[in-house]
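Colleagues,

For the teaching module next term, I've prepared a clean inverse folding example: a structure given as tokens, and then the sequence designed for it. I'd like students to try predicting residues themselves before seeing the answer, so please don't circulate the second half yet.
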């Protein structure tokens, strides 16, 4: 007679299996949730693209439609309107005969619509759920205009490089301007010159400006630079002299970049120096080398004066000065220890793109006889503007020692 033995899982085995199933379920749920989030963001971007295309087609022989209701964006009180912002809502959709979907797939909110006063340029805004996808007064019955939670969303714009406004206040972060109680409940306009509100201006998915009136008052000048596509800060200041003394990040157009945000020093030496920092890109050892500035249709900046060099060091710090920028000599050797290193007393040292340059007002122990033609001088110290120190090393040494991947670019057209 045989004895039948029944086998079963032990308690430990059951716990292990349940734990594994739980982990796999969690992974599966998270993966599925991420899939849905990505799908909704793709849907949002697709809708922005289609809405923009439909609006542009409509505007081929007409002006872009005004938003149904709108907040006026002004410069110096309500009389100087420069743009309108609201939602792509019923009247606009009917005007352009659009029926392809116009609401956020998660919370049924409408997309923000921004149009210039001329009604020639537009920009649209969606609030994404994933950062990689980017950059309140509730009317009765209109609650679906508004996203459920702006704080956890990421703004993404589509269309022309303009300046859709969203809140930068901690309590209302990312809320479109038209949804703010402080705007829509009493004024129906935002004066970017005089506002005390904190806003972010979304120029593009790569560029934005955040702050209050002291920051936003420069928007008009910056937008002028985008629209007119100035090639340098000099050209901008020549056309817009009222922005003299306003140091800021502006936008220029180069032959290789349609939109490039640069810093304009509008005060030093009378202003209009164009500056753009390179952190890590093409290594440069000599003035005859290629460098990242040339890809931007610029070159390594030249310290024209003591005041200019000091302002750049103050702005960007000494880490951009591993080598002395922009100045070299076309032949090797020779000693300059008895003259001050500037374009007046060391005239056979040349600056990129010519013109004056300055390093010192008094002689120094370098460069000595062992300079290698066209090499950058290695910086010893830029801590004291009255005692900039450097070294020229031995012949050929700049190939191994005196190079940099971090430097400042400029149009050098002061």
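(Answer key — instructors only)
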């Amino acid at each position: 007679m045989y004895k039948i033995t029944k086998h079963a899982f032990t308690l430990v085995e059951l716990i292990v299996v349940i734990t594994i199933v739980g982990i796999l379920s969690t992974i599966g749920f998270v993966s599925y949730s991420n899939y849905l989030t990505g799908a909704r963001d793709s849907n949002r971007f697709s809708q922005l693209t289609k809405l923009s295309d439909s609006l542009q087609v409509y505007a081929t022989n007409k002006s872009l439609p005004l938003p149904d209701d709108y907040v006026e964006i002004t410069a110096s009180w309500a009389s100087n309107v420069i743009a309108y912002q609201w939602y792509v809502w019923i009247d606009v959709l009917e005007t352009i005969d659009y029926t392809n979907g116009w609401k956020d797939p998660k919370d049924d909110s409408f997309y923000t619509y921004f149009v210039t006063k001329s009604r020639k340029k537009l920009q649209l805004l969606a609030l994404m759920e994933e950062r990689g996808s980017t950059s309140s007064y509730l009317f009765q019955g209109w609650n679906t205009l508004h996203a459920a939670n702006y704080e956890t969303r990421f703004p993404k714009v589509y269309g022309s490089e303009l300046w859709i406004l969203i809140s930068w206040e901690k309590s209302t972060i990312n809320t479109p301007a038209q949804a703010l109680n402080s705007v829509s409940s009493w004024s129906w306009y935002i004066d970017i010159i005089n506002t005390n509100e904190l806003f972010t201006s979304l120029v593009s998915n790569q560029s934005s400006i955040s702050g209050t009136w002291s920051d936003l008052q420069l928007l008009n000048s910056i937008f002028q630079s985008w629209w007119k596509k100035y090639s340098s800060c000099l050209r901008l200041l020549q056309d817009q002299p009222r922005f003299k003394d306003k140091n800021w990040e502006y936008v220029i157009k180069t032959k290789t970049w349609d939109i490039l945000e640069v810093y304009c020093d509008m005060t030093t030496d009378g202003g209009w120096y164009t500056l753009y920092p390179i952190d890590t890109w093409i290594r440069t050892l000599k003035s005859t080398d290629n460098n990242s500035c040339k890809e931007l249709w610029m070159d390594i900046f030249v310290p024209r004066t003591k005041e200019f060099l000091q302002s750049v060091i103050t702005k960007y710090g000494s880490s951009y000065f591993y080598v002395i920028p922009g100045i070299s000599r076309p032949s090797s050797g020779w000693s300059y220890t008895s003259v001050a290193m500037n374009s007046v007393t060391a005239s056979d040292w040349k600056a990129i793109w010519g013109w004056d340059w300055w390093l010192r007002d008094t002689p120094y122990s370098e460069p000595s006889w062992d300079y290698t033609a066209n090499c950058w001088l290695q910086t010893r110290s830029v801590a004291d503007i009255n005692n900039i120190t450097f070294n020229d090393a031995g012949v050929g040494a700049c190939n191994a020692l005196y190079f940099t991947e971090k430097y400042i670019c400029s149009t050098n057209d002061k």
